[in-house]
Amino acid sequence: xxxxxxxxxxxxxxxPMAAAGVMYGSRGATRAAREGNAxxxxxxxxxxxxxxxxxxxxxxxxxxxxxxTERLESARLRLxxxxxxxxx
Length: 88
Description:
The protein starts with a helix and ends in a 5-residue tail after the last helix. The mean pLDDT is 81. It has one helix and no strands. The protein is mainly alpha-helical.
């Protein structure tokens, strides 16, 4: 076997192996990109949910304050009715 024959055989074996390596690497890169997008999407969704939760907590605090005010007003009116001789 001379050098030209060895080179030709190496080229015939090396070409498909190199192509297989590129295809495998491309699949890995695609999968990594897809997983990266999933993580980014999850982080974005988590941030949105945390912001929404903070807004709902503020709204809940406001509603609780309004309820306490209404209960105080109701108690005041009951007391006034009792002082005037009525029954609530």
